[in-house]
Design goal:
Length: about 400
């Protein structure tokens, strides 16, 4: 039976997995070895050195390939087009290695701060990449910026932290018409493969920071790339080995273990995210809620068509600006004030000061990453307890906002 033909709730347990051949262990052992013995030079079992091949990492790579629906056979690529790296940014950096120095890249305007920084502060300099940023959720802006010499289009959807939705099908159609050879890559971290699978819309690469939903337990940093293109898989396999920023066997084990509950976790994240976003919308201390699952969200129809759930990521602006935001963030008890997202525990953060501090101030303003913007990663605790925590913290935020407003007038 082809395990990759199952529904996603079955795939998270079985995709790409087979019992360990010697003992029959149903879970892959952690192969903590750097190297493998050879009876004669060049004679080996297919495993030479862990940077190139490791059975635990391979098990995870085959799993994520199955979840994203890469469709590549073992003959086309040993791990069906899945590749695991030491971090999400290491995975992204390996994609950039596909392109010659000076290549033109078209990227979404709103991205995780570190992804934008990798483009503008590292690769624009070391690889002379010509990185053009535009609002790719707007088809006119896409048409205006896509050119025949653009080698890579990089999108996040939903974006971090403004939750913009890029229409993957429209982007694929327009970009491939203008340059059939362009590589289309989607950072699918926010959505997770449970809610959205970019290959279904004509994308070539899906990327995840496994640090987030895939691992789900906030105890390991990692990243994966998945491709459905055999030629890209061949190039990425070479680059993963040649550049060497691979995921360790232990981390691969943790992520694989986390993925087993991805489907049930995402169901809860989706439910709680929607409940909390709806509750925030009715709160008098809240100016605006940004959550694609709300019917008030401008791109709700598109989000509904492209995604099967809207995750636990909720952004909102608090009335009273920075003082109110800081007071609220200092007062939460159940939500932890911390960067990152996608774990079982709820996190809260201030993008302008924390995750998106590296975004230039004028770009932050243009994107709406204001001093009052707060981002939630709703975990899988009881939603009523989370709401009660937000409620008491918003009350403290309200008082701080009023006090600072009065002080400013005095
Ligand atoms: O942290 P790392 O595993 O290297 O992943 C980077 C990354 C890539 N893409 C997206 C959409 C991300 O959100 C991240 C990391 N983001 C955070 C740490 C954060 O709090 O937003």
């Amino acid at each position: 039976m082809d395990k990759n033909k199952h529904k996603i709730g079955t795939k998270v347990i079985h995709a790409g997995q087979s019992p360990e051949p010697i003992t029959g262990a149903v879970m892959p052992p952690i192969f903590t070895t750097s190297t493998y013995v050879q009876p004669s030079p060049g004679q080996h079992t297919g495993f030479e050195y862990t940077r190139a091949q490791n059975p635990t990492r391979f098990a995870l790579e085959r799993m994520v390939a199955g979840l994203e629906g890469s469709g590549l056979s073992a003959e086309q690529d040993e791990t069906n087009g899945g590749f695991a790296f030491a971090s999400g940014l290491a995975a992204m950096a390996t994609v950039l290695e596909l392109f010659e120095a000076g290549s033109r890249v078209l990227a979404m305007d709103d991205l995780y701060g570190g992804s934008g920084r990798l483009f503008s502060k590292v690769r624009a300099h070391s690889q002379a990449l010509d990185v053009v940023r535009a609002d790719l959720s707007d088809a006119d802006a896409l048409r205006a910026n896509m050119t025949a010499d653009t080698k890579l289009v990089w999108v996040e959807t939903p974006t971090n932290p403004m939750m913009k939705i890029a229409d993957l099908g429209v982007i694929a159609k327009i970009c491939k018409e203008i340059n059939p050879g362009v590589v289309l890559a989607c950072d699918n971290t926010f959505a997770s493969p449970i809610n959205q699978r970019p290959f279904e819309y004509g994308f070539d690469i899906s990327m995840h920071s496994t640090t987030k939903y895939l691992n789900g337990h906030s105890d390991a940093i990692g990243g994966v790339l998945i491709t459905n293109d055999a030629e890209l898989a061949q190039q990425l396999r070479f680059l993963q080995m040649a550049v060497g920023s691979v995921m360790s066997p232990f981390d691969a084990y943790l992520v694989l273990r986390g993925i087993k509950t991805l489907d049930v976790r995402m169901a809860r994240h989706n439910e709680t995210g929607l409940k909390i976003a709806g509750w925030l919308e009715t709160h008098e201390q809240v100016e605006k809620v940004i959550y694609p699952g709300l019917t008030s969200y401008p791109q709700h129809a598109l989000a509904k068509q492209q995604m099967s759930g809207f995750t636990g990521m909720v952004s909102f602006t608090i009335k009273g600006g920075l003082d109110a935001a800081k007071a609220m963030l200092e007062t939460v008890r159940l939500f932890a004030l911390a960067e990152s997202l996608g774990g079982v525990e709820s996190l809260i953060e201030h993008p302008a000061i924390m995750t998106h501090a590296s975004v230039p101030a004028e770009m932050r303003e243009q994107l709406g990453i204001t001093d009052g913007l707060i981002r939630l990663s709703c975990g899988i605790e009881d939603a009523d307890d989370l709401i009660a925590d937000l409620d008491q913290a918003l009350a403290v935020g309200a008082r701080a906002g009023v006090d600072s407003g009065a002080a400013a007038k005095a």
